[in-house]
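REQUEST FORM: STRUCTURE PREDICTION
Request ID: SP-0412
Submitted by: Lab K.M.
Chain count: 1
Length (residues): 623
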Amino acid sequence: MNAAIDKKVLEDTIAALRSKLLAARGPHGHWEGRLSSSALSTATAVFALAVVDRDRYRSLVDRGLAWLCEHQNPDGGWGDTADSPSNLSTTMLCYSAMAVVDRPNACQPCVERTESWLRRMVRTLEPEALARAVELQYGKDRTFSVPILTMCALACRLGDAGRGWRLVRPLPFELAVLPHRLFRWLRLPVVSYALPALIAIGQVGYRHRKPRNPLTGVVRHLSVAKTLRVLATLQPENGGFLEAAPLTSFVVMSLAAAGHREHPVVMKGVEFLAASIREDGSWPIDTNLATWATTLSIGALSAGGLENVLSSSEREGLLDWLLSCRHHKMHPYTQAAPGGWAWTNLPGAVPDADDTAGALIALHELSSDTAGSAVRDAVPAGIEWLLGLQNADGGIPTFCRGWTKLPFDKSAADITAHAVAAMGIWLHTLPESLRGRTEEAMLRALRYLQEAQRQNGSWVPLWFGNQSAANQENPVYGTSRALRHLTTCASGIGPHGPMGLVGPMCERAGDWLVSVQNADGGWGGDASVVSSIEETALAVDALAAACASCRDPSSVICAVHRGTQWLIASTNRGVSLPASPIGLYFARLWYSEELYPLVFALSALCKVSRRCCSSNMARFLTA
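STATUS: Completed
RESULT:
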């Protein structure tokens, strides 16, 4: 028997975490969080600004280069975050950024260490070998390999201009003039969110390497002005494509190098980049995840009783803010229908399934039984939006239904489970016709989850990973989230109707999570991976919620108990919360978010306190 959890210590830890989370709100009343600084973002932003006008943006460029040199890994490479191991993509981009240095010997030691790292990794600095190594990272998906090699070619890191551009695969930017509804049939070599890069990078590639086929050359020549107009319609008012510095930087550097330095898209993109630099000279991968951070925070506070920590006016303010974040028009970027939510309230964001599901669940936590008309309108619209996104396989993708077969456009297990939970908690309130369609969609989604669940009982997420796990996957995150969402459905609706499939999946998922718990009581991204606050909290949260319906509740209760002890000790009773790079942004860019360990730990420990202290787990606690 493990030592009992001291109930006072547990409650003191919860109080410390709750106080930190409430203090993390901005003056506007919601949460924005803070994403880790990114070497990749900083390198691309520095290079883009230098291509546009090195002298005019000298201060920003020099500050960014200084940050890169200060945060180079000891081995000579760079990872996506300061806590990430070196990888080829980020290192090649940082290496290219160093090419804009205009003072003798500035950054030279940094460049020499980088070249040593590249020789160790690729065995040569020959352009063909470097280009081939980059392409092997991404296979058939050119969403990121072509932008990386484009920046390398612009920096002359692939040899002289003529040689370098022969190593950059052309992108069919002319296809952007076709109706959006045709894109899914065109088999574009990029995912849905990369359309601006397809246009801009395609154009700079065309300028430096004309196609051999004369007809293709004519079509591309005639498409330059038209696709620039399309690109302008995709750019948000603040200039930042997807609120992302890397994507915006690739567009800016490509158009500028293609002879369009004064184009409005370039000017607005530069304004976004200049406004996004941090005091230390770095850039994050995205401005913020405000909507996502806020819905996660609401969920964590709800686990301990939302009404106990937020006043009615604070809850109303959050409700109004969330409602204001809903998209009311078809999105010009992905042609997403009205009704969904994006990861932030800022203009560059695109509606997605995970944030729409999160917002719907948060609205449920914030609203009373007599929800106002705004909520009554928003919920069916949000459910309709999710139904319209469902793929033929029954799963839910991130942005676009059936765009391509590339990974970031395919159905995802954790997102699908999240959508099912959002549908389930509002099901009884929906109009009869919508309720029937929603039940049918939930059944199809559950069948997809059955197929997606691995033999060992785990699920793998799309947008989260672990740098130390096999294939850098994070089945602990995927399984914990899916189990938690499915438990929400099962407890809210019962074993009848579409939810009859849930029990066996949850049992297998719970058994797997217990089986991969580390000897120290925590969890990493997979079996035998070092424990982190985020992954341990997610596993404890899911198992605590599911323990009552598990096949072997005693083993689950024991696992939750050990995980709880680990969280209390590893956070120093809620005082120390270092963030781990578990997030995967576009094109598999690693990030950490300061709110993740705080939010996940608070939610988990509140579940232990509120749901388990009054059940079988009470024997593990002392008064």
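NOTES: The chain has 24 helices and six strands.
Reviewed by: T.R.
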